[in-house]
From TrEMBL:
InterPro entries registered for this protein in UniProt: TM262
Protein name per the record: Transmembrane protein 262
The keyword Glycoprotein is annotated on this UniProt entry: no
Keyword field contains DNA damage: no
Transmembrane segment boundaries: 16-41, 53-76, 82-102
Keyword set, alphabetical order: Membrane, Transmembrane, Transmembrane helix
């Protein structure tokens, strides 16, 4: 008798976990990006933008992009067409969100309040 027998374990394939994780992080990043664009263009309050979290946001964008890449690779190897389209869409959207965030950070660098 193994020690795992009394426990109920639920396992998901890694391709599904990576796809769901990258899509959830994409939704969070899209919300933060929309909030930043609103504060920059509509309310014009730069102090409410996410300048303080630039390193965290760009590193989580990179993680989300990497998870989408892993999901795309795993689904290409598994020959699952529906999940492959979802993973490739997540991959493309994560790349576009990263480029949008990076471009916005570069364009608004003059509006940052630097504290030393």
């Amino acid at each position: 008798m193994s020690w795992k027998d009394p426990f109920i374990t639920i396992t998901f394939p890694s391709k599904v976990i990576y796809t769901i994780g990258s899509i959830l992080m994409l939704i969070i990043h899209t919300g933060v990006l929309i909030g930043d664009l609103y504060h920059f263009f509509v309310s014009q309050r730069g102090d409410l933008m996410s300048f303080h979290f630039t390193v965290v946001l760009l590193s989580s964008h990179t993680t989300s992009f990497y998870w989408a890449l892993l999901a795309a690779i795993y689904t290409l190897q598994a020959d699952d067409d529906v999940l492959m389209y979802i993973a490739m869409t997540s991959f493309a959207l994560n790349f576009a969100a990263f480029l949008a965030r990076f471009s916005m950070e570069y364009a608004t660098i003059d509006y940052r309040e630097e504290q030393y």
